[in-house]
Amino acid sequence: MKNMNTPKNSSLENESNQITINTIATLIIVLLPILGAIVGIKLTLDSQVSLIDIGMLGIMYFLTMIGFDVGCHRYFAHHAFQTTTAVKSLLAILGLMSSQGGLLYWSVGHPLHHKLSDQPGDVQSPNLEGNDFWGKLKGLYNAQVGWVFKIANDGNDPENIVKFEKAIKDPLILKINELQLVWIILGLIIPATLEGLITMSWMGVFKGFIWGGLVRLFLVQQFAGTISSVCHMFGDRPYKTNDYSTNNFWLAIPTLGGSWHNNHHAFPNSAYCGLEWWQIDISNWVIWILEKTGLIWDVKKPTPSMIKARKLQNSSTN
Q: Which residue ranges run through the membrane (predicted)?
């Protein structure tokens, strides 16, 4: 009997299968850290949390959040500075460990978030589902976590791939991005292995996996998500922008400065989000150290006169 599947049908079937696989993988990456957080709560209630657990959580959180904020966002999306192949490779790996979308999204898709911010076509906006309570709640969910399902299959689009390759122009970074799932898994294995070696116990392996792996991933996902959700609905707006972006002081530390989001939308290519001396921006400090050591250069930031001019522009439109 002849095979009735034409090459076109076979191609469509393969694409459909890939979409299903990508969606399932994304669902696992979202749900597994939630289960880990529940286990973490149980361990805490049972007084089974050690300083090693907390240290592993803190170190892994800091490294992967820097990878997300300094790497995926400020470097790959906004080209806010230049750096060496080694540094950008490390930032890429740490950023991918944060599970906040691949580098294809940040280099190709995220610029649309600024071009179409809080307008149809902005996959990260919380303000496109209506103004009633349920619309706002649905919008918050979309900006917090729902958007990762929308971009899960961006890598299947040949046009996106071409744009990505043109934007990156580095075969090593392209290869690193292809291994996104590997880096996420390594982000779970590394703390488990380290804590197991430190404590010389299988319980150490388990707790390292929970605290440095899953709980860390849960916290990174949630706090990174607040930049798109909370920081487009609640907070201060010192700069008038064509969207609803806001600044949130109380999120500055866990987001490493990403919550100065209205500043960011006012000066999107700036390596610095905290523009006032009192605005805590830990990512700024990391960038400053890297610049002083010569590991990065051509760091973009607005001058005091540019900031003043923008504020005058805002006041003149009130």
A: 21-43, 49-68, 89-108, 181-206
